[in-house]
Amino acid sequence: MKIRKDSLLIKIIFYNDIAIFLTSILIAIVVILTSFQDMEQRIEDTTKNKMNLLMGNYKSYFGEIRNDVYKEIGKYRISEGNQQIAEMLKYNLLKEDFRNYYNSVITIISSEGELLGEYGNKGNLGTLNEDNIHILLETSSKKEFEETGYYLAQVDNKIYARVVIPYGNETTTYYLVVSIPINRDFLTSLTDGLELSSKDRVYFVTNSPDKDELQAKFFFSNRTYKEILKKDYKNYYLNKKINGLSYYVGIYNLIGYNDSYLGSFILSLSKERLTEEKLMTSIYIGILVLLIMIISSTVSSKVFRKLLMPLTQIADLADEISKGEKVDDIKVIGQGEIRTLSISFKEMVEKLNIAQEDLTIQNKELVRNIERIEAIDKLLMGMNIEQDTFKTIKKLVSGFTSEVGLGYSRAMYFRYSRENDYLIGEEVAINRSLKEESKKGFKFQLKNLKELVLFTKVPINNDNLLAKSFKEQKIIYKNDAGYKYDLGNDVLKAIGLKNFFIFPIHGAGKFSGVVVVDNYAKDIRINQEELELLNLLSMNFSIGINNKETILDTLESERVLTIEKLATRFLKLRGEVVEKLLKCVDSENPGEKIIEELTTIKPYLARIKEDNESLKIYSEEIEDKYERVSLDKIINETIADYSQKFKSENISISFFNATSGSVLGSRRKLKKVIKELIDNACNALLDKQNNRRIDIILSKRKINEKIELKIIDNGIGISSKQLEDIYEPFISYSPQTLGLGLFFVHKVIKDHGGVIKHFSEEGNSTEVKITLNAYKEEV
Q: TM spans, by residue (predicted)?
């Protein structure tokens, strides 16, 4: 096909070449600048690494000195005025390492600051004298010295490192001091292993007017010298020209014992090779960009020339559509505007086909919704809230998957455990037709589903979908695969959930929880109409459950009211009799015969009085203020109250508290609970001849923020039959008690939103476990 000079293709090619040229130039500049920056960074990193090696050699040098001296020091007995010891130490250290110890001076000083001996290089003798020995003793006692083992000092315009090693016995302490001059020769000895090139340099500069060394104020610029004097940092890095050549310089500042600046170690790496690398990099990148420009221009020109070729095909296709001919399939051809035209025609035909398919799907969904309405109606009509709430929930779970019910694939019921703060798998129902027809997924997702769910726990204290549905009491649905969402447990991600919803069950007491239902192996989506039907089912089911719980609460209230009336009925009469009898017994001058008779019944009268007090506590209507209560303080107070009883009955008690046990509740009632449980533990130990023991453990679970209290005794234990009705009122297996203690304890813990459990082995021991919610500050 002939292309005109004023065609769009020619213009596109021209402007594309301009864009390629400008883009290539911009990329070249960016790449070159990035490369230069990377090169500069590399030499900076190299300098810092070599500087770190230099500092490592510097610090290990003094560590080696301390180790060498410690090896030798045990061979001698140091005493006052022993000059030979210093000479022998220097001699042996020179044999160990001549280079390190040639310029060093060995000095022995007493703890009072007296110079006992000194030996070393003559040029460095006498640097320790009466004027500065006290500085050495003061500096060696500082915490900073303990960390390094040495310090720096300036004497006669020269810098010395003092390594001080205390030595002696329990009564006498001596100080062995190794003094090393810090100068250029010392710095040179530290450069071993740095792999410096012939163009790299090291310098030692001093802040003293020492003519033999470089002066810091002349080596550095005024600005750098002032910054160094401030001592803000020990290490400095900067670019500097030295003798007309460029270097990247690392500076380590030497700070004296009095925090004064003494001098610096300077490591300078040459940047001459860096300049050559920058030039070569610029050339390589320029050549590469030029090649890219040529290749891009050629390729794009050929591509654009093909753009107009499919135009005839698109025109023919448009002519067929305009004539009303049916086109089942349109292939997308061409590029740019031509491709857009092709796509538009294709989309038009597809929309017509989709509209027809949507009508068919809507008809099917309408029929499906009508069937579900009938199924939900039958389910609600046939569902009676049984005495056993769990049976009612099982009916609901089965109704979700029944073909005569709602016809979903799978339903899994998770019950909320208040003790552990988890949703725990309890029941599973699978559509029978699914087992026969489905060939999708894995076998364990159907065959082993119940075993998997029964061992699945979902935490309620995070933001997973099950916890959210349960806490917000609303149905959550997802028309997608379940593994894409946070379901609180990886097992739920593995079972192949698809197009699922979470149905909350609330108001069912200990059977509250959620039901997870899905369309496993089916391409059926959950729509808004279906969600409204499920909400209707949820509302009606919750009303039925709540009515049953209301009845149970009413029965509980009536039982408590009966106890209150029973206590009030007997309190007054029994109280008056007990008071009179006790008054007669405690009288100072009763007849001997009366005293003798009353004394025999005194224990029974005291027991009646205790019963009166117990009944009075259970019958009183006192509104306690709920506040932050620390269980460890209550337990310690109770142990103190019972200390005399523990001693008289030979009971050993231990209290381990890993937390303060802060909860929101009534301090009075919680203290009564602790006393009641300790009383029971003491009574259980009465028949035990020896080794009577009570253990109390207070801890906090980190996972679900629960406070856990355990009271364990090694008494006579409780039978399994007695454990069945242990929290019922007026049930006691001791003739001396009313049987209200554990009833009160159970009620208080339940009112505080907690759980209490008894575990016992008859004839051996009993453990009481209480779980309460930890106190949380209001935000």
A: 12-36, 279-299
* pLDDT higher than 90, residue 500: yes
Whether residues 638 and 762 fall in one domain: yes
> CA 731 to CA 758: how far, in whole Å?
16
* 92 within domain boundaries: no
The helix/strand/coil state of 687 is coil
CATH of the domain at 231: 3.30.450
- Kindly state whether residues 742 and 631 are assigned to the same domain: yes
Higher pLDDT: 570 or 637? It is 637
Q: Does some domain include residue 411?
A: yes
Q: How does pLDDT run across 477-486, given as a tens digit for each residue? A: 999 999 999 9
Q: How many domains does the chain have?
A: 5
Report the C-alpha gap between 306 and 1 in whole angstroms.
Answer: 10
Highest averaged pLDDT of the listed ranges 239-248, 332-341, 728-737? 239-248
305 Cβ contact list (under 8 Å, min separation 6):
3, 9
* Overall average pLDDT of the 583-596 stretch: 59
Q: What is the pTM of this model?
A: 0.40
Looking at the fold, whether 605 and 517 belong to one and the same domain comes out as no
pLDDT of residue 759: 92
Query: Closest Cα partner for 757 from 704, 697, 709, 692?
Result: 709
Helix (H) or strand (E) segment spanning residue 770: strand 765-773
What band does 572 get if pLDDT is binned at 50, 70 and 90?
A: very low
User: What is the helix (H) or strand (E) element at residue 83, kind and residue range?
Assistant: helix 83-96
Q: Cα Rg for the chain, rounded, in angstroms?
A: 46
pLDDT band at 634 (very low <50, low <70, confident <90, very high): very high
Question: pLDDT at position 235, please?
Answer: 82
Question: What does the chain come to in residues?
Answer: 779
Domain that holds residue 496: 383-526
Distance in angstroms (rounded) separating the CA atoms of residues 457 and 422: 6
H or E, element range at 594: helix 592-619
* Residue 140 within any structural domain of the chain: no
CA dihedral 718→722→724→727, nearest 10 degrees, is: -90
Taking the C-alpha atoms of residue 187 and residue 57, their distance in angstroms, rounded to an integer, is 10
How many separate helices (H) and strands (E) can be counted in the chain? 23, 23
The reply to whether 590 falls in a domain is yes
Shared domain check, 434 and 360 = no
In this structure, the answer to whether residues 457 and 549 fall within a common structural domain is no
